## 1
Amino acid sequence: MNPQDKLKIQRHEIPTQDPNIRRTNNNEVATGFDDKTAIEEAQRCLQCKKPFCMQGCPVAINIPNFLAEIAKGEFVRASQIIRDTNSLPAVCGRVCPQETQCEELCVLGKKGKSVAIGALERFAADYEREHTDMIITMDATPTHKKIAIIGSGPAGLTTAGYLAKLGHDVTIFEAFHEAGGVLIYGIPEFRLPKAIVRKEIQTLDKLGVQFAFNTLVGRTTTVDELFADGYKAILVAPGAGLPVFMHLPGENYCGIYSANEFLTRVNLMKAFRFPEYDTPVYCGKNVAIIGGGNTAMDAARTAIRMKPEAVYLVYRRTEQEMPARLEEIHHAKEEGIQFLELTSPVSYQGDENGWVKGMECIRMELGEPDSSGRRRPVPIPGSNFTLPIDTVVVAIGAKSNDLIMRTSHGMEVNKWGYLVVNPETQMTTRDGVFAGGDIASEEASVISAMGQGRRAGKAMHEYVMDK
């Protein structure tokens, strides 16, 4: 197909459930491309001699090559090309912000709409999973070098897969009873089905990766003890499981959750399937979600599926400044989430039983830009009002627990509490200890954490082989 014919093909948007239906269930919102649509969308790729799209991918997927295979109908081959550098393609195709990474740099986007790279990555990965046994070949000679991975989130899983393919003996230490990290406990079922995450993780089993569950490093064992047990290198990637609150009056009333607790109880502990699973989560009639990022959108869209009368998204800036993906904002609005922009909570009121019943807020206006480049929200004196609510989810960020650093020596942290790492190798200030994901940078996306994990894996391999 010549370039002029390619330009005539309109971008195909991924189909979704009707909003009025999907807000009543936890089935996946996006239903995916069929074969014909995937081929037509992949044919839009111009196969540029200088593929700028690849520059936007933290794990350097060969995007033109996998798109070319889809265009030919070679769907399994397309997925295998993706897996050369990305061990979780079905996950990334669903939750990564392609619109600000690979798709943003697609040349078609300069005068029209970019190729739907994310949807096609998802399609190829899903096709391979549904139509093959996903056979993993191991060509590397065993090195018998023991490597420990602390945390089974995106960074940890990526590093583990990379090192296992090189023949190392890899063990992942996970504090929870199941692998996946934020992919399992944080991202809702309707956005990322857990069966897909588990299937992706099974590829690590085939590579020989071992898992040690219910193991909290810093309590069950320590970094020092892992070295003493014969591990030659360690990756610290426990994620951001420590909640952040605003320290407002009344914040200890019942009915006020951190986003971590709310989403973990729903996702990991299956509260959305209560009473089939016996871990309920309380969700009242009027729910307020504090924040404007992807986690806030996940919490709001999770809450609306529990059938309250109203769910409010309370954000101190405007929608234009929200860090959440445009797709998530759009879906939240479609599902009936009410956006209260330029609004910030200042205190909570409770009833005689200690349950939250109201949230006092203040109106904001935007002032000069702050260090993030966004205009700083400034309170408007005398604009206070009370919002009647009985459930609050605080989703203003999270940070990593410092337990690992407190129980082992030699790992420096910066003033924000993140581990100091070499940006080229991800090695910390302690020899042989590497770090990736949220503990090594401000809350990272899934794909950026995977990029760090891949970079760490390469450096760890070189480190243990040199040793």
Note: Residues 222 and 407 are 7 Å apart (CA to CA).
## 2
Amino acid sequence: MATESQRRHVHTRSIRVDAYARDDGLWDIEAVLVDTKSRDLQLASGLRAAGDPIHQMRLQVTVDRDLNVRDASAVTTWVPYPGHCNRIEPEYKRLIGLNLARDFRRDVRERLGGVRGCSHLSELAGALPTAAIQGFAGEVKRDDPAQAERKPFQLDRCHALETTGPAVATFYPRWYRGAGPATGKPTSGSSDSEQGETR
């Protein structure tokens, strides 16, 4: 039997995302990233004491019920290169006009990838879509009749909710595209156009 390896804690990265329902019908989705070390760290910009953040950054977007980004802001409180890292904050206004449910991560890369943005803030942006969906769950009523005709956002976005799988057959039978119980053919009620929808 192999002996258990000894290990020493050196680093913690925490990411927290909160969703807030606003009185004006919009939503704020706020993501915070914090990096800390278990020992003092000598950065090029100076000594960072153990427990003091290497990075502490907040990215917030305001979205409507259709997940369109109406406003965006970034704040970098702790950074490795003060006065330099912080200068990118205004660029995250470029998230305005994107939609969290439609190609959001791709669009973030196009607008803010590489030297056009901050790798840590853009990483936070990647956490926003699914956090927003979780925030909406149980809060946003899809009472628009047109919404009932659209494939639920979460289908075909993870292995459990593939539209050919048993979970969809059980919980979302209308959108199930697997083999029918008797015919071996795809079930009725779903079309290629529905399969391609993301909302």
Note: Residues 43 and 80 are 7 Å apart (CA to CA).
## 3
Amino acid sequence: MSKTAFVGLGVMGYPMARHMASGGNEVTVYNRTIAKAEKWVGENGGSRAKTPAKAAEGADIVCACVGNDDDLRSVVYGDEGILAGLKPGSVFVDHTTASADVAREIGGKAKSMGFGFIDAPVSGGQAGAENGVLTVMCGGEEDTFNKAKPVIDCFAQAVTLLGPVGSGQLCKMVNQICIAGLVQGLAEGINFGTRAGLDMKKVTGVISKGAAQSWQMENRALTMVDDQFEFGFAVDWMRKDLGICMQEARNNGARLPITALVDQFYAQVQAKGGNRWDTSSLLRNLTQD
């Protein structure tokens, strides 16, 4: 059993912390909304801290999952931040989908203070978090990774060290770039088939057994056909992630023409009021004026 902490009890962090507790770890949680942290403790045991620093005190492994670079800095730095509470030799694991730059920044600061750091964004959505089967993409030093992996394994089906600090975030960018194009293609295929008079539930049932198969088709095609978009990852979050991808592409010279186009399609979904619809709602751009 490890003494651990989890900072950020959103739709991902809440169940991730639960799996840490059910895995036999002692868990202290922090969340800006006190009521949510108290609810988590009532359901899972452990304890609630008043600040990220207090959550980190005495912990071997501290995990965080917040919104963006600014949110991350707000819980990491300062007298009440995670770094102020860590003990020498402990490891901070950040599951936020953020920029590689902020990962390197925090990693450098943590190392200078005698702490380990792993950037470890996740894929698998809310369902993956609830079921403890996330894919975790990690950047950091191997010995630090090995310390953190048993805790990460509590909510993951795959955990991979990809390189130095920042590599996890870069891998997550590749993940989001690939998803963006796939979802747009799926939306166009469903719209085309529907207008052609096909039974798209039967169609996707057939083509999902061939070369067109993807996680998006297996998990979102039927709900898209039913015009349901209240599942998993929200459009607002996807646009945040794609913005990170395109900023990194400007830094490294990569061309992302499809990603940039799909980002604008998501902007159109937002204009329809779909900020909290899931990412498969790209179909609404094709079916609604």
Note: The chain has two domains: 3-164, 170-287.
